[in-house]
Every structure is written in structure tokens, then in C-alpha cells.
Write a structure and sequence with these properties.
This protein is mainly α and 579 residues long. It has 27 helices and no strands. Helix 3 crosses helix 5, helix 17 packs across helix 21 and helix 25 crosses helix 26.
């Protein structure tokens, strides 16, 4: 039966919807598990166990499942020794920007290697997590990390370094208000003191733990404190404790009906001390008859050698002493197959910090280069825009000057006729002085405009509508050349000569040093006498209209102060020039 395209599309749509629903359900279960992970690990483990790993799609969800499932196992004391699952999380989060999950993935990888007694690999993973510890705001997880590093060193018989890390864990638990975790860190510190034979410190620690345990009805810690206090009294050969002191502690332990190997070893030591060798031998056999650690084995073999030694059986005593030494050698050989953890830890930490610094430096350099490029590009674009606008404005201003000069040049005949008519009228009223001034002004205008009138070529190109930028650039250059010609030194000398001839040496009189006028002041007066507008003068001198007015007022004020007659004559000339 052949399916229609619509049916195929419908089936695909159903599959997509089912996948989305399944995905959301998995994410919801993981969210719930993570929410109760610390307060209710059993519930979190149950929720994670309800997820079918084969139904998970997407690398991000797979990595998160691997991390949370491993965390739930560890918090429920399920000692996983395979790194196949947690490595999914490690590989994913090592390349993604989720610092907290990256920290946890390295931490639990270190826990798994520690469980399988791969201490070098454990230290390497935990060092990677330690590098991220400063970025984790929660002191609880940092405390867990330092506790785990302490455990690795404790199991490797490096008790001083283990104690240092337990102290760090205690500080972080305290800052996170995790009182129970803090108490367990103190217990670990006491265990290190006991192994370091610092018995006074160990006794003080376990007495503190006993007080807390009694106040909080914690039977486990209470028993632990009795056990370790008893061990301190039995092991401390520098101080003589009565058997009653030790017996009172052991009676507290016996009241709990506890038969773990540690308690049985304590009782065996106690009866050896009291010379009850039968009871001591009985407890030694009880330890050997149940599951026990390598430390338990070494201790009971040594106790058996001591029992036989006290009984006078030197051969058996020597045999068990040899067995004890052989067991210790086996353990030491196993540890010596791995590099020294302390050095290895420092080495990996240094390498990690160097790599981190290199990565940070590379990021900083890339950011700086990017910012510099952005600044250069922005500055270039902004500079180009400003220069273009300024050139456009100058071009327009230059062309307006040309317009003004051209208009005056084209209207030269009309102005001359009007001025002649004005001269005739003024002659009739016998105002010879004003008539002469107007006649002189007319001559200046005539000569100036004839001299500086732009070429017909420029005017023709100016009024053409040209879209070609290259032609526009050429036009700008031509206009600029015309402006430069107007205020060139050669033409300025000509203009001054004409103005001096017509206006009774006006330029020579205002240019003397005693008048104290600057070059800009003199140029402004010169162009005003020539009849140019303030805007055209501003364009020629490359300054604002406001600046021209300010320069004019300042110049007139100086002249008024230095020579009132010169000021008065120039004021009349400027007034007539503006007609």
C-alpha cells in the first residue's frame, strides 16, 4: 500500500511532537532531581533511575544526565569505579561555558578515580576542578572538593597534606553554613592528627566531636569519637593512662553492640595491654573472619606477633611480624608504582594555572585587537565623513564667494551708473567730501572686481549638474585655486597699493607697529574695504562669521584707543563700503 504525501507528512509531524514531549519529560525529571539532590539524595537517585538513557537525544541533555546520575550515585554511597558515564559530561562541559557543571564533572571524575585507587588520575581531575573553585559561589561544593583531595592524600599516607585540605574544607563548610559537613571535616583532621602521632591535638578534636554528638543525638559520631579517643590512649606511649581510663571508653563502645573491625582492633589492643591474651587473640580472629581493609590486616598481624611474643612463642611472633611487614611492603609498592602525589598535584596545578593564564591572555589579546580594529574602522569612517562634509561645505562656501564676486562683476556697469548719479546729486548739495569718498569707493570696487572676477570656465562647471565624483573633485580643486589666488601675497600687495592710493594710505597707516594690529585684523579690514561680505571673508580666511564680526569689533576698539582720528576715518570708509 502506497502512502500519500499527506500521510507521510502527518507521520513525521507525530514523530516530532512525540520527540519533543519525551525531551521535555526527561528535562523535567532532571530538573526535579537536581532540585532535591542535596536535601534528599534517595529521591534524586529514584528520579534519575526513572530516565531511560536510550531515550535521551542531544549532547547537552546526555551530558547533563551523565553528570546528575553520577552525582546521585555518589551521594547515595554507590561507589562507581568506571569513568565511561562521567566522561560524557567531562568532554561536553570542558568545551562549553557552564563553569559549575564543568567543576562538578571534574570533581566526580576525581571521586571515581579515587574509588578505584587511581590516585594520580584522581589528583589530575580534582586539580582541574580546583582551578574552577574560585568561580563557584557556593562554599559547600568547594568544601566537598577539598575533602575529596584530602581523602586522596590520606589514602596515600600523606597525612600532613591531607590535614591541610581538610582544614580548607572545614573553612568552606563553615562559610556555607553546613554544620554537619564541617563536623565531619573536623573528624578527618583528628584522624590525621592520630596518624601523625599528635595525640594531644587528636584527643582535643575528638572530645569536641563527642560534645557535639551528644548535644545533637548523633550516635554514629558519638561512637566514632569514643573509638578514636580510645585509640589515642592506647597508642600514646609518652603518657601513661590507667587501664580504668581506657576501660571506661571501651565500655561506652561495647554499650553500642558494635562489632566493626575498628572496634574489634581496639578491644584486641586493650586486652593485649591488660595481658589477657586469650581475649585479645579472640578479637584478632574476629577481625580476620569478616570483611576488612588492608590497614586492618596489617594491624591485626602486628597484634598477633605481639601476643605470641608476650606468650614466649618467638617463632610465631617472628612469623606474624614478617607477615605484617610483607603486607606493608605490598601496600607501599603499590603506592610507589604511582608518582609522588604531592609533587604530581603541584605539577598539575602549575600546568593548569599556566594554561589558564595563556587562555586568558589569548582572549584578552583577541579582545584588544578586535577593539583596536573597531576603533580604527570607526575613526576612519568618522574621519572620512567629517572630511567629506567639511569639503562639501567649503566647496559650497567657495562657490558662494564666486557667486558674490560674479554678481558684483556682472552688475559693475549698473553700479557705476548709480554711483555717478549719486555723485551728481551730492555735487548739487556741495558735499564735496562725501562725493570724493563715493567716487573713490566706486573706483576701488571697479578695480577690485575686475582683478578678482573668476573665470567663465569655473562658473560654467559650477552650474552643471555633474554626478561623477572625479569631475566634482576637479571642480573643487579649481574653485580652491581661485580662492587661493584671491588672497595670494602677490594680489594682496596689489590690493593694498590700490587701497593706499585711493584711501589716503589707509593700509599703510593701520599696518604700523604702533597700532598693534595682528595680520588677521589687517586682512579682515582689507577685505571689508574691498567690499566683500562677512560670509565670503569667513570662507576665504577659514573662520566663522561670528569670528569675523568679533575681529572687526576688536580691531576698531584698538584703533579707537590708539588713534581716534584713524578710527573715525576707517569707520566712515567701512560704512560706505557696505553700501
Amino acid at each position: 500500500m502506497k502512502l500519500r504525501p499527506v500521510s507521510v507528512l502527518f507521520i513525521i509531524l507525530l514523530f516530532i511532537v512525540a520527540s519533543c514531549v519525551s525531551r521535555h519529560a526527561v528535562v523535567a525529571l532532571m530538573d526535579s532531581a537536581e532540585l532535591v539532590m542535596n536535601e534528599s539524595p534517595e529521591q534524586a537517585y529514584g528520579l534519575m533511575s526513572d530516565i531511560d538513557p536510550h531515550s535521551i537525544s542531544g549532547r547537552a541533555i546526555q551530558a547533563r544526565y551523565a553528570l546528575l546520575y553520577t552525582e546521585a550515585q555518589y551521594k547515595n554511597y554507590i561507589n562507581e569505579t568506571s569513568d565511561s558515564l562521567i566522561m560524557i559530561a567531562v568532554r561536553y562541559y570542558s568545551n562549553h561555558n557552564n563553569t559549575f557543571y564543568r567543576f562538578l564533572s571534574y570533581y566526580y571524575l576525581g571521586c571515581i578515580y579515587s574509588n578505584s585507587k587511581q590516585y594520580v588520575d584522581a589528583i589530575l581531575a580534582l586539580t582541574q576542578a580546583e582551578r574552577l573553585a574560585n568561580e563557584i559561589p557556593d562554599g559547600y561544593y568547594t568544601g566537598l572538593l577539598y575533602s575529596q583531595i584530602g581523602n586522596v592524600f590520606f589514602d596515600s599516607f600523606d597525612y600532613q597534606r591531607a590535614k591541610d585540605y581538610y582544614n580548607k574544607a572545614k573553612y568552606n563548610y563553615d562559610s556555607a553554613n553546613k554544620e554537619l559537613h564541617k563536623i565531619h571535616a573536623i573528624v578527618d583532621i583528628g584522624r590525621c592528627d592520630l596518624e601523625l602521632q599528635e595525640y594531644d591535638s587528636a584527643i582535643a578534636v575528638f572530645k569536641e566531636i563527642k560534645v557535639w554528638a551528644d548535644a545533637n543525638d548523633d550516635d554514629y559520631l558519638s561512637l566514632l569519637s569514643w573509638q578514636n579517643l580510645s585509640m589515642c590512649l592506647l597508642m600514646d606511649t609518652d603518657k601513661v593512662y590507667t587501664t580504668n581510663d581506657i576501660q571506661s571508653l571501651l565500655l561506652q563502645i561495647n554499650d553500642t553492640d558494635n562489632n566493626d573491625p575498628y572496634t574489634l582492633r581496639l578491644l584486641a589492643r586493650y586486652f593485649l595491654k591488660t595481658k589477657d591474651y586469650v581475649q585479645s587473640q579472640s578479637y584478632v580472629q574476629s577481625v580476620l573472619s569478616q570483611a576488612h581493609t588492608v590497614s586492618d590486616t596489617i594491624d591485626v598481624l602486628f597484634l598477633k606477633s605481639q601476643i605470641y611474643k608476650e606468650l614466649g612463642n618467638q617463632d610465631s611472633a617472628f612469623y606474624y611480624y614478617q607477615q605484617s611487614i610483607a603486607c606493608q611492603n605490598s601496600t607501599l609498592k603499590q603506592l610507589l608504582r604511582q608518582p609522588v602525589l604531592g609533587v604530581q598535584k603541584d605539577y598539575y596545578q602549575t600546568i593548569s594555572e599556566v594554561e589558564s593564564l595563556k587562555a586568558d591572555k589569548q582572549k584578552t589579546e583577541l579582545i584588544i585587537i578586535f577593539l583596536l580594529l573597531l576603533i580604527v574602522i570607526t575613526a576612519s569612517a568618522l574621519g572620512y565623513t567629517i572630511i567629506k562634509r567639511r569639503n562639501d561645505k567649503r566647496n559650497r562656501d567657495y562657490l558662494l564667494v564666486i557667486d558674490e564676486l560674479s554678481a558684483k562683476d556682472s552688475m559693475n556697469v549698473v553700479e557705476i551708473e548709480n554711483l555717478n548719479s549719486m555723485i551728481s546729486k551730492l555735487s548739487n548739495i556741495n558735499d564735496c567730501q562725501n562725493t570724493e569718498i563715493i567716487r573713490q569707493n566706486n573706483r576701488v570696487h571697479d578695480l577690485f572686481l575686475q582683478q578678482f572676477a573668476p573665470t567663465n570656465y569655473v562658473l560654467t562647471r559650477y552650474y552643471d549638474h555633474i554626478s561623477d565624483s572625479r569631475v566634482a573633485d576637479r571642480l573643487y580643486k579649481i574653485v580652491k585655486e581661485q580662492m587661493d589666488i584671491i588672497i595670494s601675497p602677490k594680489n594682496i600687495v596689489k590690493l593694498d597699493s590700490q587701497l593706499n592710493e585711493i584711501y589716503n594710505d589707509i593700509m599703510s597707516r593701520i599696518s604700523v607697529p604702533s597700532v598693534h594690529l595682528s595680520e588677521k585684523d589687517i586682512m579682515t579690514i582689507r577685505l571689508l574695504l574691498a567690499g566683500l561680505s562677512v560670509k565670503s571673508i569667513g570662507t576665504l580666511l577659514d573662520c566663522s562669521i561670528h569670528s569675523i564680526y568679533k575681529t572687526k569689533d576688536r580691531t576698531m576698539a584698538k584703533l579707537k584707543k590708539e588713534s581716534y582720528s584713524l578710527y573715525e576715518g576707517l569707520a566712515k570708509l567701512l560704512e560706505i563700503s557696505s553700501l
